[in-house]
Every structure is written in structure tokens, then in C-alpha cells.
Design a protein that fits this description.
heterodimer; A: about 280 residues; mainly beta; eight-stranded antiparallel beta sheet; globular; B: about 60% strand
């Protein structure tokens, strides 16, 4: 708890310490009640939390050539999840690239919020979700990324976390300005466990779910933090990697804030590769 | 809340000259009922025919070796260039369109609560005859109930 004394009185602020020993103010009232499945408690508010429970669906939408759909076969915490399956579509890249590749699956929601403005309540945005690498063969030739991006009419500004599942342990990377990926951590687990693949008679519906959160500052156009399960990576100036600028390239596309999760493959197998995401939440931080 | 999902399996944007199929529509997996609209606006060739089919995929197969079956649907109605035929919801397949069919031609078919809609659905079309060409659309309207 912190206190601020002014001429009109004393303000008390509740605080919590994250896994990196960084102190965050807790908003009042405690908004994490709106995030029932989150592992993060720093959000100032919820921008969108697409609910996949009703068959009427949500505005979560796959903008890619693969298929993306509300999945009642693979449930998360009693609710349907969202499956992304490139089917036989492929991309010819050695990394996820600099922009969302619509030759795979690009699952997104959009909310208009101008880039470069100090918005209210915040210009810092979070994109969190739970991800399960559901099928077999996600330990090779696939790209899984979570992105927050926006455009100003001239350029696109992209923050992207790449969870590289082709390595064991998995590697966490962020897209740097200029198009390179920087390794920011690793995580000692593998996607080749608890899979679900009817074609091969495997029907594990429990799976292994991973918490993924990316936080970016769209006013200063820099990364803020990444969290993968319990591992928190501070990407501020005080963090181990110093200040990391969002990638930007010329792009006159739609000027809207995108919260997006992408999944693509570089080759097509005789059985489908697919992943599921659940409880996606876009936040103010 | 009931919701209807509209999906376009093929549009009239370009004439079709070879047999083919739509992508799969797993988005329909939450639906209990389905309407299928087939509209043909133009054709050319000699002795040409068009058959449109609704197909279900066996979920234990996928990708290039996926196995599909063709299923019957119920006739709702036909509009053959202004000549209306109301359907009796009997089971059958989409009418074959030939060079003699009055265009524009629209057929509406349905899957009702009586039938079971598969998780993985697609539409296929089979063209035959000499240099067949058909300009047609196929749209699917799924209805959820929850």
C-alpha cells in the first residue's frame, strides 16, 4: 500500500508485487473480478472479453485462409474454446514475419483506439488468453503468436510475442523494430503432451493449457511486459532487455487497434494441425 | 438466443468450368438446422449439367485423404425464372441443372431438427457435358438454438 499526502488529505493506494518484484497499483474497485480466469492482476479494465459460451458466438473472428471456429469439442473451464486450424494452407516463411499472415489463421477482435494518443484510462493494452496446442505435430513447422497492433494511416505498429514450440524447452520471442525476433525467455514444457487428434485415435480433452499475455504501450510504441504461465518478463527500460520498441512498417490499412492471435504452418501433413485458445481478454493496463 | 450464420460456399463472381468443392464450414458445428440456397444465373456448353451436393466429413479423416459422404436434404422451394414450385420437405438431392433449365434458377433446401448436422460440412459441385460453364452461388444459413 502507498500513500500520497496533499493539501486536501491522504490518498491510499492498494498495490501488489509481480513475480519480477515490480510494484503495481491495484485499481479500485478491484476489476479483476471481471477477469475470472486471468493470472494477471494489474489490469485497469477490460476492453473486450469475447464470450464463447453462447452458440450465438462473439466478435472473435478468423481473418485468415485457415478455419477458426467456436469449438464445443475442446472445452476450457466448462466453456467452448476457439479452434484455429490452417487445414492445408501453408506459409513460406522461416519466422512469423512482421505482419499477421492471412495465409494461416488470424483470430482477432478490433476496437477503435488511435495509436499515439494518451488515452483514457490508459494507452497501455494487454492481450491475454489461454492456449492449448491441441493436435499432434505442433512441435515442428508451426508459428504461434499473439499480437497487438494498430495503424496511424501511414505505418503499422506491432507488438508480437512468438511462442516457438518447435524447441524444447519452448522459446519466447518478441518482434523487434526492424523485423528481427529477440529471445526473452524459455519455458520448460513441450506441446507434445495431452494431445487430441481423432484421426489417430487420441482424444485427450483435458490437454495442457498455457496462459499467454502480451502488454504494449501504444502511445510510446514500446513493449511493457510478457507473461507465459507463471513466468513474467519485464520489458520496460528497467528490465533485463531494456526498452524494446514496437516494430513498424509502412501500412495504410485500417486504423484500429487489433488484438490478434495467429497460428500458421509451413507444411501440410496428412493429419491436421490445430490449436485452441480460450478466455481471450483485451485489457487496459 | 437463436442465431443465424450465413456462409457463402460459392459466389457468382466467376463462372465455374470444372467440378470442385467449397472449403469446410466447421462454423456450422453449433447449428441444429440448415437452409441451403443454390442459384444459377448463367450457363454455356453443350449438354452441360450441374449437380450440387452437401457433404459431411468423417472426423477421423482429414486433409488430402479426408473422406466425405453426400447427404440428402429436404426440398423447400424452387424459383425457375419466376415459376414457383413449393416444396413438401421431402428428402432428396439438389435438382440437376441442365441447358434446358429456366434461368435464373434458385432452389432452397433444408435440414430440419429431424436430421443430424455433422461437425464438418462442405459443398461440392459436379459439372459434366462438353465445355460446361455455370455461374452459380451456394449459400448456407445455419441456425443455432441455445
Amino acid at each position: 500500500m502507498s500513500s500520497t499526502v496533499t493539501s486536501t488529505g491522504t490518498t491510499l493506494t492498494l498495490q501488489y508485487t509481480d513475480p519480477n518484484s515490480k510494484v503495481h497499483n491495484l485499481p479500485h474497485p478491484l476489476l479483476q473480478q471481471l477477469l475470472p480466469f486471468t493470472r494477471s492482476f494489474s489490469a485497469k479494465g477490460v476492453i473486450a472479453a469475447p464470450d464463447l459460451s453462447p452458440a450465438s458466438g462473439s466478435d472473435l473472428y478468423n481473418d485468415g485462409a485457415g478455419v477458426g471456429f467456436r469449438d464445443t469439442d475442446i472445452m476450457f473451464n466448462g466453456r467452448p474454446s476457439f479452434r484455429m486450424c490452417p487445414q492445408q494452407t501453408t506459409i513460406g516463411l522461416s519466422s512469423p514475419g512482421r505482419t499477421a499472415n492471412t495465409s494461416g489463421c488470424v483470430t482477432k477482435i478490433r476496437r477503435v483506439n488511435l495509436v499515439g494518443t494518451a488515452g483514457i484510462p490508459s494507452n497501455v493494452f494487454g492481450w491475454e488468453q489461454w492456449i492449448r496446442w491441441t493436435s499432434n505435430n505442433n512441435n515442428a513447422a508451426v508459428f504461434t503468436t499473439a499480437s497487438v497492433y494498430d495503424r496511424d494511416g501511414t505505418n503499422v505498429f506491432i507488438g508480437r510475442l512468438w511462442v516457438d514450440t518447435t524447441l524444447d524447452p519452448m522459446i519466447l520471442k518478441i518482434l523487434q523494430n526492424g523485423g528481427n525476433y529477440l529471445q526473452i525467455g524459455s519455458y520448460n514444457t513441450s506441446v507434445a503432451q495431452g494431445t487430441y487428434q481423432p484421426e489417430t485415435g487420441i482424444a485427450d480433452r483435458a490437454g495442457s493449457w498455457n496462459y499467454v499475455k502480451l502488454v504494449v504501450d501504444m502511445y510510446n510504441k514500446v513493449y511493457v511486459s510478457v507473461q507465459f504461465n507463471e513466468v513474467f518478463v519485464d520489458l520496460s527500460a528497467a528490465g533485463p532487455f531494456g526498452l524494446q520498441t514496437l516494430d513498424s512498417t509502412p501500412d495504410t490499412g485500417s486504423r484500429v487497434l487489433h488484438f490478434s492471435t495467429e497460428f500458421s504452418q509451413t507444411n501440410s501433413l496428412s493429419t491436421e494441425r490445430f490449436i485452441n485458445m480460450a478466455q481471450p481478454v483485451a485489457t487496459f493496463e | 438466443m437463436t442465431k443465424r450464420i450465413t456462409l457463402v460456399a460459392n459466389s457468382t463472381l466467376n463462372p465455374v468450368t470444372t467440378s470442385g468443392n467449397s472449403r469446410e464450414f466447421p462454423e456450422l458445428s453449433g447449428c441444429k438446422r440448415l437452409l441451403i440456397f443454390v442459384t444459377v444465373t448463367a450457363t454455356s456448353g453443350s449438354g452441360q449439367t450441374l449437380n450440387v451436393n452437401l457433404e459431411y466429413r468423417d472426423p477421423a479423416t482429414s486433409q488430402a485423404t479426408a473422406q466425405y459422404v453426400r447427404v440428402q436434404t429436404r426440398i423447400v422451394g424452387i424459383n425457375a425464372n419466376g415459376v414457383y414450385t413449393t416444396g413438401g420437405y421431402s428428402l432428396g438431392t439438389v435438382d440437376q441443372v441442365t441447358s434446358a433449365t429456366a434461368l435464373p434458377w434458385t432452389e432452397c433446401r433444408a435440414l430440419t431438427d429431424t436430421e443430424l448436422l455433422a461437425n464438418i460440412v462442405r459443398v461440392s459441385w459436379v459439372l459434366a457435358g462438353s465445355t460446361p460453364s455455370f455461374t452459380f452461388s451456394v449459400s448456407l444459413v445455419g441456425e443455432t438454438e441455445e
